[in-house]
Amino acid sequence: MLGRMEGDYDVVVVGGGPAGLAAAIGARDAGATRVLVVDREDEAGGILLQCIHAGFGLHYFKEELTGPEYAERFVARALDRDIDVVGSAYVSGAGLDSDGTRRVRVMREGHGIRTVRSRAMVLAMGCRERTRGALHIPGTRPAGVLTAGLAQRFVNVMGLLPGRRVAILGSGDIGLIMARRLTLEGCEVVGVFELMPFSNGLTRNVVQCLGDFGIPLHLSTTVVEIHGQDRVDKITVAPVGADLAPDLSRCREVACDTLLLSIGLVPENELSQGLGVELDVVTQGPRVSSTLETSLPGVFACGNVLHVHDLCDYVTEEALLAGRFAGELAGGVKRPRDNIRVVPGDNVRYCVPHTLAPGREHTIYLRSERPLRPAAIRVGDLVRRKLGFVTPAEMITFRIKPDVLDRFHGEALRIDLLGEPAGPHLAGAEP
Ligand SMILES: Cc1cc2nc3c(=O)[nH]c(=O)nc-3n(C[C@H](O)[C@H](O)[C@H](O)COP(=O)(O)OP(=O)(O)OC[C@H]3O[C@@H](n4cnc5c(N)ncnc54)[C@H](O)[C@@H]3O)c2cc1C
Asked: What CATH number is given for 340-421 in this structure?
């Protein structure tokens, strides 16, 4: 990958995934002349480089692209704008100088360690997968237990098969996509086991990756033991009750040589914590204002480091905005502080951003606590709109117009999701 990194910058972006690339483009288009993107991998593009399936770009480009194609378009746009994109460069620390200048410490292959200063900084480090240790699954510790994303890298990037007879714990999107991918590679996927009574992946992925291939989805079921000495040879699964506790009297064994884990993603915020950025305990990402600025002035956040997204197109939309505001701040634009707090109400797990300002249009991203059908969103006493079906796996995007927000005179705007609890209406789902 190209790799020029000289002097100081208007905006430095940490992470060259879809969020970092879009943020850099947003900053440049807002007038920042010197913009740098730093990524620890050889190539920019982030996790998309291993997502060789189609389905990216339907919202943003109105066409269906693979992950690498989607990433390639943004790398090209960044380079067209003379943005410096540097690979094999790890940001090992960040801070603020006493005059407020932001700085990052970059360790770069063949170049040693350098401190780069900037007027604004965008955090776009993405997320990582939860592993077996997060769930404390009992049993032996054989080979063959790995996260779905690692299996995706093995298959799509390295050309290696992780196993032949595969069980998957968790119905997150990566697990669903890997169920299909491994089936196409000739593996037998014996089933997807999901703790919750609903899938944690997009409905389209349940239908296209499981239903179309006859792969069973066992809801309200979990893995209670892993067996095998050198290699996994079976797992024990058990149904769970409403309290999510396994019913060990109804265990059964499932023969397999591989267990993939698709049990959630965690925003990668060690750098943010080192900086002193305030985090939201629910999203595990930074708390941000309507300009996507964190609790530290001049430090912005976007993409999966801010909250886990299910569609890359929304990452792009959010990151262009974060970059734009970072670019404007670097150019000296000052904005008044937000004066409206957004409060998650009934059935709402979280909302981003955390505060709003009157006089501008805002996009609010939120997730429901549970599936609801029919559902409606209520924003204070300003708006009430029908949504149809909502589920925690599918992020809700809600735009609020300035003239609507201007009618609000309180300090805390509460957002509720209303509706009837919905059962699992999904193709391929088995009780
Ligand atoms: C395994 C996996 C598979 C996925 N599959 C799909 C899918 O099929 N479809 C879909 O729509 N979404 C998928 N997603 C969601 C996807 O992550 C997001 O849509 C999108 O890639 C998020 O973009 P991002 O830029 O925030 O994060 P990422 O794409 O993860 O990019 C973050 C970048 O930051 C870099 N970085 C992190 N820390 C540092 C540091 N300290 N110094 C330098 N660089 C750093 C990383 O190397 C990485 O390149 C998947 C996610 C994962 C984890």
From this structure: 2.60.40
